Amino acid sequence: MTTTRKTTYREAVREALRDALSRDERVFLMGEDIGRYGGCYAVSLGLLEEFGPERIRDTPLSESAFVGAGIGAALVGMRPVVEIMTVNFSLLALDQIVNNAATMPHMSGGQFSIPLVIRMTTGAGRQLAAQHSHSLEGWYAHIPGLRVVAPATVADARGMLWTALCDPDPVLIFEHASLYNTAATLAEQLAPVDIDHAAVRRAGTDVTVITYGGTLAKSLEAAEEVAAAGVDAEVIDLRALRPLDDATIMDSVRRTHRAVVVDEGWRSGSLAAEISARITEQAFYDLDAPVERVCTVETPIPYAQHLERAALPQQSDIVAAVRRVVAGGG
Amino acid sequence: MSSTETQPEDTPIDHRTDLLRQMLRIRRFEERCAELYSASKIRGFLHLYVGEEAVAVGVTHALSEDDALVSTYRDHGHALARGVPMDAVMAEMYGKATGCSRGRGGSMHLFDVRRRFYGGNAIVAGGLPLSVGLALGDVMSGRRRVSACFFGDGAVAEGEFHECLNLAALWQLPVLFCCENNLYAMGTALNQAQAVTDLALRASSYGLTSWPVDGMDVIAVAEAAQRAVEGVRAGAGPCFLELRTYRFRAHSMYDPDRYRDKEEIERWKQRDPIDGLAADLRAHGELTDDELSGIEEGIKKELDQAVAMAETAPVEPVEDLTRFVYAERPR
Question: How far is the C-alpha of B99 from the C-alpha of B106, rounded, in Å?
């Protein structure tokens, strides 16, 4: 019989880390304030006491050095899990991620693999203003050589890490900071989780809402809202941002003939743009209406609550977009 | 550095003729590359190591096969000294499938996993974090290996340099930082770019053992590197060598070299590491003209063969363009 328990997203990530540290002695954590402080989002709280300072390594504030050190350690057989406080800070390590981790396997003609996992938070919603709130995962999803995932559910937060660690390529895990306190019931016996496929989180027939990460919950709520008005929306959680699971997207769009892409990144040059383009390329003749996008307003994220709220995709924006595509076309 | 402290059977002086041969081998390789570049056989950027041979040869002499090496975009000398086969390096220059990076790296990105050669890195200071990680992985796995990292004086101005020296010293990692100070970051002189030009002094501010070395004297480099490697391997923490050297040629084949005084270049050429060692060996009766000719002949033969092989080697099929972007695995 399967037993279940209530778990928060934060606890799920911590359990995933603990599990990985227990299963494989090559796994170690490295990042700013992950040890004594317990992690800036308290994800790694208690792990220092449990696994010791050799494997739970507090680093100086030097993103480039410790991300690069993670690459180097992965090159000699370790399985580093590097934590960067937020995606904004990852820009200080962009050289290592883009110029080394993403290039070395190919540039060396396949002589090296880099089984490195980099976790970082992303996204807005906590009034942290423009240097702690951006959603830049789309940038990373642009880069060949990287795998990019965004666990939006507690189950994925629990399961994706181990799969990522078993992957021979560098995997970036983006955790939307608004998710840490969300909770769900997990089975005690966990099945392996893939990091290749999108998931249909709500089946529907009238329109496909494609999203990931922090906007999944809003999209699901929007779907429930329009359901009351008789519109049956399918909601796809991308899960993997690179490579994208075109098949799941197209299969859905070919059935619903309408698509709305919800993305907390800015519209210009975004993941939403990429998905929209792919739908146009692969399912144009199945569409009954132009693809809609719901993205963040093109401004640095402001501090004031009402301004931040206005900048971000909200449930009402998603509902409005869904209504437009359903009203449009034939 | 004093040479009296090293073990007689271990002293680099026993291998002086071999050190000369290795330096000559790099010099002749670079000269041939310049010719092949002019003949359009080699394209892209080409940064020649002429003048700096004593650094690569001296440092690699002190490393064991198990140790790792991280390099820069001026990496031919490092690769050859490390033992990457010349034909594989030349084939890479040609962009061939038999190249040491299967034609995907070129001159600036030579790799050889078997020789623990972690590549030419064309981002200044970009290799330092890698070397810190290689060393960290070794320490955590209980291996007593050294990770050596080459970089130029330009790297000392980069943030990654400071982050990495601090981290390596903080965690007492077995990294040998080898700064090839050739006085110019591309076209900008050291004293035009750095407020404090004593680079060994700056490294020491992070708590590393560091000292300057005459990078035009291969014996001095080999001895310094040997002493440094011994300390690093023994767990004394990272070490920084400032290898004072000079490139006799321009930064790259595109560089008209307008920023250097011709007299300065000539002055440094008087200190050619190859001429210097050859003269010394002759003076001590350790090298005859015949022996030198023999060395030159052997190198020429190896070079001719490397070029001939590169000329006829197959190219990577275009269908394989996207191979190795991700690791190949059973699906």
Answer: 8
